[in-house]
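Hi support team,

I've been running sequence recovery on a batch of backbones for a student project. Most finish fine, but this one hangs at about 90% for roughly twenty minutes before it completes. I'm not sure whether the input is malformed or the queue is just slow. I've pasted the structure tokens below so you can try to reproduce it. Let me know if you need the job ID as well.

Thanks,
M.K.
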């Protein structure tokens, strides 16, 4: 059985789709408040399948809990300080693979006014894949 963790906005809909797969156990972390959540999403939260949590802090899972961790559009607004803490946490809970999708196709580079306080452009796209799945 594969255990998958999805982290990012729209986690409820992703988890709902992945739950239809055979031999797959799915969990989710929604990094933003669920103000307009539908009944299905509220049910997933009530069952503990989806959590609403700030990913800047340590994840509440043991090392290698999940076969695969998928992160979509959840790291875009983290500062370099938190990005450097969050990515290792995501890797820690993955046993076979970590996939990080960030940014939007065709997105323009950061303007000078949008540079981080470190003087470097904010990371727009990150793609990491390791292990086998």
């Amino acid at each position: 059985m594969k255990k998958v963790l999805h982290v990012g906005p729209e986690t409820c809909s992703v988890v709902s789709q992945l739950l239809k797969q055979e031999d797959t156990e799915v969990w989710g972390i929604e990094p933003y408040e669920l103000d307009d959540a539908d009944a299905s999403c509220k049910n997933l939260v009530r069952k503990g399948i989806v959590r609403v949590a700030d990913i800047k802090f340590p994840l509440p899972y043991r090392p290698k809990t999940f076969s695969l961790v998928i992160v979509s559009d959840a790291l875009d607004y983290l500062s370099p300080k938190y990005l450097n803490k969050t990515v290792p946490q995501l890797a820690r809970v993955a046993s076979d693979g970590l996939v990080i999708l960030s940014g939007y196709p065709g997105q323009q580079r950061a303007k000078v006014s949008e540079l981080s306080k470190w003087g470097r452009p904010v990371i727009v796209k990150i793609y990491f894949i390791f292990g086998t799945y």
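--
Follow-up from support: It reproduced on our side and the slowdown came from queue contention, not your input. The radius of gyration is 15 Å. No action needed from you.
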